[in-house]
UniProtKB/TrEMBL annotation:
Lineage: Eukaryota, Fungi, Dikarya, Ascomycota, Pezizomycotina
Main location: nucleus
Keyword line: DNA-directed RNA polymerase, Nucleus, Transcription
Classification via InterPro entries: RNA_pol-assoc_fac_A49-like
Localization, UniProt: Nucleus, Nucleolus
PANTHER family, A to Z: DNA-DIRECTED RNA POLYMERASE I SUBUNIT RPA49 (PTHR14440)
GO biological process: DNA-templated transcription
Organism: Colletotrichum trifolii
Keyword Transcription assigned: yes
Gene designation per UniProt: rpa49
Designated name of the protein: DNA-directed RNA polymerase I subunit rpa49
Record's keyword annotation contains Nucleus: yes
Family, as annotated: Belongs to the eukaryotic RPA49/POLR1E RNA polymerase subunit family.
Amino acid sequence: MDFTGREDGVSDAQQALKHYVGVFDPKTGKLEVVEAKRMVVRGVVRAKQASEEAMTAPADYQSYYALKTDLGQTFGTRKAKKAIEAVTLNAIDPSKGQEDAPRKLNVADRATLKEIGGITATMATREQLQAAVDQAKPVPRANLEADAIQDVYDPDEIIGREVLAAVPVKDWTEPTKKGEDVQVFSRHVAERVKKTVDSGNLDKVRLLRYFYFLFLFHTMAQPGRQRGTKRVPPRDKLKERFAPAPQAVIEHIRRKFSDGGEIRKYHSDLLITHCLAIACIIDNFEVDTSRLREDLRLEQKEINSYFYEIGARIKPVSNSKEKAKGEKSRTHYVAKLALPLQFPKLRSVAPKRR
């Protein structure tokens, strides 16, 4: 384009009308006012035309082969796509050196690599990602530096020393010592009350009672308004069922395993994994999962996955009594906590095959 400019004529009605342009210099603080003439600017196309190469953008230019390749990648069969990929991989790279010499990087390649290096430098490593995932899991906090298995899940850490000390056990120990049965709603607990009391280990009796409180809290919860949630039972119902537990123990369980009167999937998983860790401690780190599965209303596959989350191993065992009677023995599953713990690893998602 060629541009021409000329001063526009002023009509009689605009004789007194003038235009000015102000130029302000910030360094000196002065303002210079200059009269601006009224101009008429016109553009004219140059006689000489640009060449066809100059008018064609390189990015918009595609050869017949490139168009055919794009169509093949979009609508071709799997065999056709594989053939196109093979041609692309085996293509001769003009920037590659002779006799398998390293490829010479151009300015664009170096800039791209520098940008990628800056981005990947701040990315988390696989170990850091695994640690972040483990930290966010709804499981009791494990001491991974422990040298003995009994120190991995310390009741004073995962529950609290003051809370355990407040758990009542007298109404269990006294009737049991007199030969009387203790009535509970959990078959897993019922099979262990006498054995635990007879051992004389009050800490384990308190742990078993705390496990029973968690079981009651889990089974008393009703379906919530949102899908997949449950409602915490009213305080008076909890107090009645947890009796003679003090209010401090009840509130501890409410706060730890619910939020705002609602039990979400995270809280439910946290409660179940606490139950399984406590069950392992009570049974000397090797527990039959059958009664636990029935009490917590879980499938065998589900309870196995919960045990895996706390680092336990699952092994199937046969019932020797049924086998001795000639009956078809049912397979039981035993969960065992032993060092080193085996936790589920962060899985890598494989790319989809084309």
